[in-house]
């Protein structure tokens, strides 16, 4: 959390501290309440981020309210949860901690998820009905409800004068995958720091989790594979902007055939995969599109094979025991399958073929708008790392294998054997390939819109183009 300022004041002689937080940031805070609000005078109310929802009450600020407002007691500002509702409509079945509710509800709010939180809410509700003692200004009696509203008014007043300068730390969400190499390298080699941007790498369990937390502003930057969730997020105008490519690859490098099928003569060409079990890691992601692409030369489409979903690590034993005949396998697992004589990559990219975009970097667009200079500086540092990795032999350079190994857990010796991904030194994306991925997801019914969108409506490369212009094209 990046705290912008603290404001101290007193109500009923009780010390209070307000934490002012920039728009798009979730925070955890406690506001001590007067002893008139409860026995012992030690009760408080907590605002927490989505990932800590079960520990308290979550109210999120938006563009019109410059700070997070802990207002659950009076149900004020509850409409600020609209960004979370929108997110839920994209991810489909959000994790339990998302706390999403239907936006059609007349009084949207989030209920506490544990007894302690429920007790707190009940005590606050009772407090609003109680009268407090004499004040020092005329002896009038005032309800706890009115004093709570006054506390909120003070909060918003102080918030209005707090400055919204660039965030002190930019949080980058990642999963332990080689595709995040540009972000790893820029962070570890100090390229972000050289641009005046402090960064923190935050490991998350999945690409969906990264997209979720960038959407809510809990982290500012992330990355992941192109797929249905990305296209839906862009179309629904969530505060997420897809701003630069991460890695490219040749689709032929992903197809791994069970070696026993080849040795038995059951596989000689892609057309032999008709009706066979073939694995991808998930539905609606880039690897499903890759499978469809590698099947095309054999006159097949994804509907002509028996698609299984398995995590990448589980594909190797499945190939070994015959549960699947082929798989779209990412590195380093594809190389490991070959080394263990479990699988073979029979296809090679044609001469002159271009690699296709697989993963992209994205950030919270509200954060970028309010921190334009920090966003531009971040992109300049990112471009520098991408260009490092684009140099001949860069993938096998010890400085890079050590960094990638540190954040992926893959031994440097294994990385040296893998097929290197491709990076765009000018941060360019091929619209034709991206349109193909969008069309595929639309055809399979994964998208929440019915007609293809121009790629320029879904991707914002303006920051990348500005960074390249500043640094010069290569």
Tell me what the structure shows.
The protein is an alpha+beta fold. The chain has helices spanning 82-91, 115-129, 144-161, 181-188, 191-194, 207-216, 228-235, 259-263, 286-295, 312-321, 333-339, 365-370, 372-390, 398-408, 412-415, 431-443, 455-458, 462-471; strands spanning 5-11, 14-20, 29-32, 44-47, 169-174, 198-203, 221-225, 240-245, 248-249, 255-258, 277-280, 306-309, 326-328, 343-344, 356-357, 359-364. It is built from 18 helices and 16 strands. A five-stranded mixed β-sheet has the order 12-11-13-10-14, with helices on both faces. Helix 9 (286-295) links the parallel strand 11 (277-280) and strand 12. The chain is globular. The model is unreliable at 1-125, 127-145 and 152-167 (pLDDT under 50).
Strand order of the largest sheet: 12-11-13-10-14
**Portion in beta strands:** 15-25%
- Distance N terminus to C terminus? 37 Å
* Topology-level CATH name of the largest domain: D-Maltodextrin-Binding Protein, domain 2
Q: Please give the CATH class of the largest domain.
A: Alpha Beta
Total number of distinct structural domains: 3
Using the 3D structure, state the CATH architecture of the largest domain. Answer: 3-Layer(aba) Sandwich
Assembly state of the chains shown: single chain
Residue stretches low in confidence (pLDDT < 50, at least 5 long) are 1-125, 127-145, 152-167
The coarse silhouette is: globular
Total beta-strand segments: 16
CATH superfamily grouping of the largest domain: Periplasmic binding protein-like II
Q: Which structural class is indicated by helix and strand composition?
A: alpha+beta
Helix content: 25-40%
């Amino acid at each position: 959390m990046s705290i912008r300022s603290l404001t101290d004041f007193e109500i009923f002689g009780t010390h209070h501290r307000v934490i002012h937080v920039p728009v798009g940031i979730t925070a955890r805070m406690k506001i001590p309440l007067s002893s008139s609000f409860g026995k012992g005078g030690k009760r408080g109310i907590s605002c927490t981020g989505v990932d800590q929802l079960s520990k308290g009450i979550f109210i999120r600020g938006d563009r019109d309210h410059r700070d997070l407002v802990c207002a659950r007691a009076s149900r004020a500002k509850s409409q600020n949860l609209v960004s979370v509702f929108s997110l839920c409509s994209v991810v489909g079945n959000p994790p339990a901690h998302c706390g999403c509710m239907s936006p059609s509800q007349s009084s949207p709010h989030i209920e506490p998820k544990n007894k302690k939180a429920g007790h707190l809410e009940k005590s606050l509700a009772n407090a609003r009905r109680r009268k407090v003692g004499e004040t020092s200004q005329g002896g009038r009696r005032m309800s706890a409800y009115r004093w709570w509203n006054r506390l909120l008014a003070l909060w918003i007043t102080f918030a209005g004068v707090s400055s919204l300068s660039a965030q002190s730390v930019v949080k980058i969400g990642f999963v332990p995958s080689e595709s995040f190499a540009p972000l790893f390298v820029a962070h570890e080699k100090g390229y972000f720091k050289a641009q005046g941007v402090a960064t923190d790498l935050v490991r998350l369990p999945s690409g969906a989790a990264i997209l979720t937390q960038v959407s809510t502003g809990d982290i500012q930057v992330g990355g992941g594979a192109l797929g249905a969730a990305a296209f839906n997020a862009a179309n629904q105008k969530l505060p997420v902007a897809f701003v630069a490519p991460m890695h490219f690859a040749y689709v032929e490098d992903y197809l791994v055939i069970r070696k026993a099928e080849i040795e038995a003569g059951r596989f000689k060409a892609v057309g032999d995969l008709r009706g066979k079990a073939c694995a991808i890691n998930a539905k609606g992601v880039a690897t499903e599109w890759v499978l469809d692409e590698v099947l095309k030369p054999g006159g097949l489409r994804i509907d002509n094979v028996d698609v299984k979903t398995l995590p990448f690590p589980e594909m190797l034993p499945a190939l070994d025991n015959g549960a699947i005949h082929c798989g779209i396998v990412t590195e380093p697992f594809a190389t490991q399958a070959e080394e263990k004589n479990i699988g073979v990559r029979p296809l090679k990219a044609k001469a002159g073929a271009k690699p296709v975009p697989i993963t992209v970097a994205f950030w919270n667009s509200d954060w970028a708008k309010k921190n334009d200079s920090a966003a531009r500086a971040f992109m300049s540092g990112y471009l520098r790392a991408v260009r490092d990795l684009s140099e001949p032999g860069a993938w096998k350079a010890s400085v890079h294998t050590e960094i990638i190994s540190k954040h992926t857990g893959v031994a440097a010796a294994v990385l040296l054997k893998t097929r290197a991904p491709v990076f765009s030194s000018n941060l360019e994306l091929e619209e034709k390939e991206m349109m193909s991925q969008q069309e595929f997801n639309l055809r399979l019914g994964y998208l929440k819109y019915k007609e293809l969108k121009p790629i320029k409506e879904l991707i914002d490369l303006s920051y990348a183009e500005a960074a390249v212009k500043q640094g010069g094209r290569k």
